[in-house]
Design a protein that fits this description.
Helices cover about 40% and strands about 5% of the residues. By secondary structure, the protein is mostly helical.
Length: about 100
């Protein structure tokens, strides 16, 4: 928030096997199950951190807002994924910089 980076401080991350994009049916089911984000990463780190009682936060860059839906219904180009990732990495760097400053 200090760097004006949009973030969510709560949510449910559904981990799926990859590397592949999910189908619309998978996204629909995961949404019904309560998922607010779907991705191929974040496991097993999250569970291991919880088991060890470690504080844990995810820095996630969303590059596809739901495979099989909306603009992604027909196809998703690698160029659009790379473009979304590239534009988000500056925010990730700012976020990590802020965290390190506050930790020291």
């Amino acid at each position: 928030k200090r760097r004006a980076i949009p973030c969510h401080d709560k949510g449910v991350d559904a981990a799926v096997g990859g590397p592949r994009l999910e189908t619309a049916a998978e996204i629909d089911r995961l949404e019904r199950d309560g998922a607010t984000m779907v991705g191929m990463t974040g496991m097993p780190e999250t569970v291991l951190a919880r088991e060890l009682g470690l504080n844990y936060a995810t820095i996630a860059v969303v590059v596809n807002h739901a495979a099989g839906r909306g603009d992604s219904a027909v196809s998703i180009s690698m160029a659009s994924i790379v473009g979304a990732l590239d534009s988000a990495m500056d925010k990730v760097r700012l976020l990590i910089d802020q965290v390190l400053k506050e930790a020291s």
